[in-house]
């Protein structure tokens, strides 16, 4: 992604419409356009591979900005809050720290370190955090299996070993190219026949196994589903994200497997054998423990496109650290820059979880280009991270304060049925002549389908 005069440029050949701009210390709307345009351009390249005529990709700036937030609005019912009651920013002795407690085990870890019981509220947590040094509390929560991030400045992050490591990583790290077979010793179990996909629906019939959660990866697979991919999302038996189920399960079949049990792991390998693309958000050590390292996957499933994403990057001392968009914003200086830019008394994050969304569309683009390469006889893996996407964003300048906010005619919203009730979804932000985006599967929620390919 290119930044000129503090603003993101869309990929060459992409036409943009609209002028809506999200207010931010950085060019968030420009990032939205650039990331979505990158994924759209990859779809266009795949459509041309399948015989489509050259055409112009158009991205609507207002819609791109809005898709970086919530695309789905319920009619007559409400979504639960996306945040746990004690998740958020707290003052400590030397600044600010953010606790991410949405997952029950992350909440329990933070409360244990703070010496609090399960009934703690924001007031008791604030009192318990106040005497702590920020970095000491961050280290203690992480060591206990929780998630926390001290607010650092950009300079502090660039001086930090992890900040230096991430700055040296490419935006998309491509693995070594390999052949999609191994001399016939192993066969991909996908049904025989012509390669899936066509000019109108470039991913029709392409099987995407989705082991991602919490926004970035699900955004990637939602984009792929819109162009015909058969997405099978796998979640643990007890995983819940009720606030975003309608948002991020649309277009997908969603099943549950316990990968800690031999039967669940064996079933996953059967699914991998039938998959074309594997997208996951597991840390490398977690995959190694499951016997799913890149090396093992390449050996057992040589034709599989493998795309991975994580929070803090793939090198450096924090390569195995759990993280989320809001934590990375605190770590890398985004929340601190927003605080200074807006004259806020508290950390000021981006107006949307832009690192998640941008990385999701970049992940989709990487999967698309890797799949096109697979059809052409070469398999490549790709890795991305929220922290590396943040490097791109922090190279931009603030939004124009005179620019209009993103706008949308309510009549343009698309009616949609879900497992929880009806609602309306934003119009698609991309237009490619002759290429049809649509969701073939309604949002039905986690565990609503069997762990099997159609």
TrEMBL record:
Which Pfam family is an annotated match for this chain, by its short name? Answer: CoA_transf_3
Q: Where is the composition biased (Low complexity)?
A: 191-200
Q: Where is this region: Disordered?
A: 177-201
Q: What is this protein called?
A: Crotonobetainyl-CoA:carnitine CoA-transferase CaiB-like acyl-CoA transferase
> What species is this protein from?
Arthrobacter stackebrandtii
């Amino acid at each position: 992604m290119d930044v000129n005069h503090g603003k993101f440029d869309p990929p060459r050949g992409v036409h943009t419409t609209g002028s809506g701009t999200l207010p931010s210390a950085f060019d968030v709307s420009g990032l939205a356009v650039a990331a979505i345009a990158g994924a759209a351009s990859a779809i266009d390249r795949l459509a041309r591979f399948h015989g489509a005529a050259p055409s112009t990709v158009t991205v609507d700036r207002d819609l791109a900005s809005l898709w970086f937030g919530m695309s789905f609005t319920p009619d007559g019912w409400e979504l639960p809050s996306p945040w746990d009651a004690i998740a958020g920013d707290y003052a400590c002795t030397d600044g600010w720290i953010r606790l991410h407690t949405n997952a029950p085990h992350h909440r329990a870890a933070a409360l244990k370190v703070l010496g609090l019981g399960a009934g703690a509220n924001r007031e008791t947590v604030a009192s318990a955090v106040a005497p702590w040094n920020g970095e000491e509390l961050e280290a203690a929560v992480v060591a206990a299996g929780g998630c926390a991030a001290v607010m650092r400045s950009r300079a502090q992050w660039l001086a930090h070993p992890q900040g230096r490591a991430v700055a040296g990583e490419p935006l998309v790290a491509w693995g070594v190219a390999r052949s999609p077979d191994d001399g016939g010793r192993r066969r991909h179990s996908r049904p025989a026949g012509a390669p899936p996909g066509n000019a109108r629906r470039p991913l029709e019939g392409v099987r995407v196994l989705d082991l991602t959660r919490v926004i970035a990866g699900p955004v990637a697979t939602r984009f792929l589903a819109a162009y015909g991919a058969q997405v099978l999302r796998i979640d643990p038996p007890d995983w819940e994200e009720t606030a975003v189920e309608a948002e991020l399960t649309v277009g997908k079949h969603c099943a549950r497997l316990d990968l800690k049990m031999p039967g669940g792991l064996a079933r996953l390998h059967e699914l991998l054998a039938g998959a074309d693309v594997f997208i996951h958000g597991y840390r490398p050590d977690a995959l190694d423990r499951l016997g799913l390292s890149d090396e093992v996957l390449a050996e057992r499933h040589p034709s599989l496109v493998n795309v991975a994403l994580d929070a803090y990057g793939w090198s450096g001392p924090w390569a195995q650290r759990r993280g989320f968009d809001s934590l990375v914003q605190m770590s890398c200086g985004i929340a601190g820059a927003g605080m200074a830019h807006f004259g806020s008394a508290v950390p000021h994050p981006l107006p949307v979880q832009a690192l998640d969304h941008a990385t999701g569309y970049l992940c989709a683009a990487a999967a698309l280009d890797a799949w096109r390469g697979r059809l052409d006889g070469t398999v490549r893996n790709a890795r991305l991270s929220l922290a590396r996407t943040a490097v791109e964003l922090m190279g931009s300048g603030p939004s124009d304060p005179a620019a209009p906010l993103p706008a949308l005619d309510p009549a343009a919203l698309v009616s949609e049925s879900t497992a929880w009730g009806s609602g309306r979804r934003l119009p698609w932000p991309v237009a490619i002549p002759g290429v049809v985006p649509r969701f073939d599967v309604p949002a039905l929620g986690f565990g609503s389908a069997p762990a099997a390919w159609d």
